[in-house]
Amino acid sequence: MKVKFLPIVLITLIAVCGLQPLFAAKPHLGDTKIIIVNAQPFQEISVSPGSDIELQARLYLFYYNNVLKVTWIPQICRYLDFYVYDSSNNLVWSDSAITNFFTANANPDKFTLNKKGTYTLKVKYEGDLKHCQSTTKINVI
Fold first, then answer.
1. Which among 82, 89, 95 has a CA at the least distance from the CA of 117?
2. What DSSP letter does each residue of 57-121 carry, written as one string?
3. What does each C-alpha distance from 14 to 1, 7, 19, 91, 112 come to in angstroms?
4. Which H or E run includes 123?
5. How far apart are alpha carbons 39 and 109 in whole angstroms?
6. 29-39 residue pLDDT tens
7. Which domains, from first to last, does the chain contain?
8. What contacts 88, CB < 8 A, 6 or more positions away?
9. What are the backbone angles phi and psi of residue 54, rounded to the nearest 5°?
């Protein structure tokens, strides 16, 4: 009798394990994310050595909007921390910026990278909501 249930148990385990990544990507109430202003994830940035780099980001919270529909809501007056690391993981630039009251954009100070190479940009939120981080590359070519 136990032998008959073994294939059913195995198929169920395989199905659950296979579908787990689909359910893991679904946001939950209170989740946060950092994205660029046009609602896209951070993309790699390519710049020339010595040129000004301007960054802009928004913090979103997955929560109820005014009509009790769950959606991503931009957060205002929240600090975002910006860090740039070189290929040896040394910090080469950092700044903090608060999300604007009217636009929800966080705009840190402009900066330049003078040496060619690939840098890592990390933008973190570590306030009273759920912490989150976005990462992308800056290519200085």
1. 89
2. BEEEEEEE-TTS-EEEEE--S-EEEEEEE-TT--EEEEEEEEPPTTT--B-PPPEE--S-EEEEE
3. 21, 10, 9, 43, 50
4. strand 117-125
5. 21
6. 999 999 876 66
7. 27-140 (2.60.40.2550)
8. none
9. -115, 130
Q: What angle do CA 46, 126, 112 make, to 5 degrees?
A: 25
* Range 135-141 average pLDDT: 95
Q: Which amino acid, 67?
A: V
- Reading the block at residue 74, the tokens are 């931009």
Q: Comparing 27 with 108, which gets the higher pLDDT?
A: 108
- Rounded to an integer, what distance in angstroms lies between the CA atom of residue 91 and that of residue 95? 11
Task: Please provide the average confidence, as pLDDT, over all residues in the chain.
Answer: 84
Tokens found for residue 17: 């394990």
CA 8 to chain centre: 39
